[in-house]
Amino acid sequence: MILEKDLENAILSFHHKLKDEMHKQAIKMHFNTSQLEVLHFVTEKGNPTMKNIADRLHITPPSVTTIVESLIKKDLLQRESDTKDRRTIRITATSKTIKLFYKFKNKKLLILKNLFLKLNDENKKQLIRLINIIIKD
């Protein structure tokens, strides 16, 4: 039981460290982390609906609406009618978003790289192997 508690603490500590670093980057880019998560999902997913965004990010639809509206005002997202069902509204990224997304993705990779500098190559390989074991269905 002690080992499980230590593992839980280590995972939560790493999660918080990563989240803190991402939050710092979001602030530098004049966004909050929720806005960046929405931009990331929309850019990766393609043209999701508001419900898709809410489900994926585990937030309420009204929260998604608020976030998406703020990003539309910044000309980073736009609403488009679905070609198959005009009642469905899809959220799409603008060209400005795509440039921003890759800038943020590179910053995220740099954050991860810096977090893992303390590990030698063998430790990194072992961590990858262990994570892959954990995430397999």
What this model shows, in words?
The protein is mainly α and 137 residues long. The chain contains six helices and two strands. It has a single domain, classed as Orthogonal Bundle (Arc Repressor Mutant, subunit A). It is 71% helix and 7% strand. Strands 1-2 form a two-stranded antiparallel ribbon. A hairpin with a 7-residue loop joins strand 1 (77-81) and strand 2 (89-93). Helix 1 crosses helix 5, helix 2 packs across helix 4 and helix 3 crosses helix 4 (61-73). The two termini are 24 Å apart. The model has no long low-confidence stretch (mean pLDDT 90).
Task: Using the coordinates shown, work out and report the CATH topology.
Answer: Arc Repressor Mutant, subunit A
Distance between the termini: 24 Å
Poorly predicted segments: none
The major sheet is characterized as: 2 strands, antiparallel
Name of the CATH superfamily: Winged helix-like DNA-binding domain superfamily/Winged helix DNA-binding domain
Strand and helix map with partners:
Blueprint: H1 2-28, H2 33-45, H3 50-57, H4 61-73, E1 77-81, E2 89-93, H5 95-115, H6 121-135
Antiparallel strand pairs: 1-2
Record keyword descriptors for this entry.
137 residues, mainly alpha, Arc Repressor Mutant, subunit A, two-stranded antiparallel sheet, 6 helices, elongated
Summarize the structure.
The protein is mostly helical and 137 residues long. It is built from 6 helices and 2 strands; from the N terminus they run H-H-H-H-E-E-H-H.
